[in-house]
Amino acid sequence: MTNKSSFDLNNLNPLQLNSLKEQISSEYQKYRQSYTQLLEIKSLYSNTLFSLESLQPENLNQPILAPLTESLYLPGKLTNVKSVLTDIGTNFFVERGVKDAQEYFKRQTKIVEEKAQEVLKTMKQNEESLKAVNTVLERKVYQQQQKFVGQQQQQQQKKVLKK
């Protein structure tokens, strides 16, 4: 769970435990989506770094396919191997030398990896919390069932004794 307050799960009733279970599950799903997005960004940065490596002087004037969309390309020639435009967020572009762009994307990759590890750590904490809640919930439901069965048996015994 993300909040650091601690409390005894045994003090909660099954309804409260079920509500807590749903809350933790919902949080877990959000973190899972975030983790997936971070992995996609990391992959994008890795592909970018790979592409930057191809910007060598010997590739000057070589034919390329410039993407217009993910499935639409425009043929062209590589006319500049010294600098690139990098998207630094919300469609703001900065011209950088290739080496500077590589360093930028290495730093960004490291930041994304660190964030992904933080999210993964939180996901594991949520999993542990969910297991703890499930364990207590199952035990409480079992206790209620046993109590109910015991009450039914007592009622049956009373009926038998009355006859």
TrEMBL record:
It comes from Anaeramoeba flamelloides. It comes from the Eukaryota. InterPro entries: PFD_alpha_archaea (IPR011599), Prefoldin (IPR009053), Prefoldin_subunit_alpha (IPR004127). Belongs to the prefoldin subunit alpha family. This is Prefoldin subunit 5.
